Amino acid sequence: MSYSHLSIIERSKLEILHQQGKSSRTIAEELGRHHATICREIRRNAELEPYDAQRSQHAYEQRRRASVLQGKWTEEQAVELEEKLHATWSPEQIVEHFRAEGQPTVCYKTILSLALCRPPCPSGREGATAQR
After folding, report:
1. pTM of the predicted model as reported, rounded to 2 decimal places
2. What is the pLDDT of residues 64-98, one digit of tens each?
3. Hey, is 80 helix, strand or coil?
4. What is the longest distance spanned by two Cα atoms in the chain?
5. Is there a contact between 56 and 11 (Cβ–Cβ < 8 Å)?
6. Which residues lie closer than 8 Å to 34 by C-beta, 6 or more apart?
7. 104 Cβ contact list (under 8 Å, min separation 6)
């Protein structure tokens, strides 16, 4: 089941209907949303003050920005990863090397995808598979 976030227009309508004293179910019908969505939106954004659409939209945008995961890799790790790939280390060896050093790492499949998308080594060697 898919869903979409409330837009500023829906939040504005919700604010007006809520100020008019309409119930959550009535507001939900009017907006074409589930009543639990409306209850949750009002509860989340009208604890201390009356519901305000712009304040709620701003809080939503802040929550969305805060929910983005920070990357695991530092620039130094990216350089080291490239060096290991150019030295024909396998993705599995690279992952285990980072784990042994207690550094954050990603799945070997992610490293393999990176290796397949990068240009060939300047030395002309294609990597460990060319040596077999």
Report:
1. 0.55
2. 888 876 666 778 888 888 899 889 899 899 889 98
3. helix
4. 76
5. yes
6. 28
7. 72, 73, 77, 98
For 8, the token pair is 């500023």
| Contacts made by residues 103-106, CB under 8 angstroms, sequence distance 24+ | 103/77, 104/72, 104/73, 104/77, 105/72, 106/72, 106/73
How confident is the model at residue 6, as a pLDDT? 95
Query: How many other β-carbons are positioned within 10 Å of the β-carbon of residue 27?
Result: 24
Burial of 81 (0-12, 13-18, 19+ CB in 10 A): buried
Give the C-alpha separation, 24 to 40, whole Å.
10
Q: 113, 66, 63, 105: which is closest to 85 by C-alpha?
A: 113
Residues 6 or more apart in contact with residue 90 via CB below 8 angstroms:
108, 128
Asked whether the CA dihedral 23, 29, 31, 32 is positive or negative, the reply is positive
**CA-to-CA distance for 31 and 26, rounded, in angstroms?**
9
What are the C-alpha distances in Å from 73 to residues 77, 97, 128? Answer: 6, 14, 24
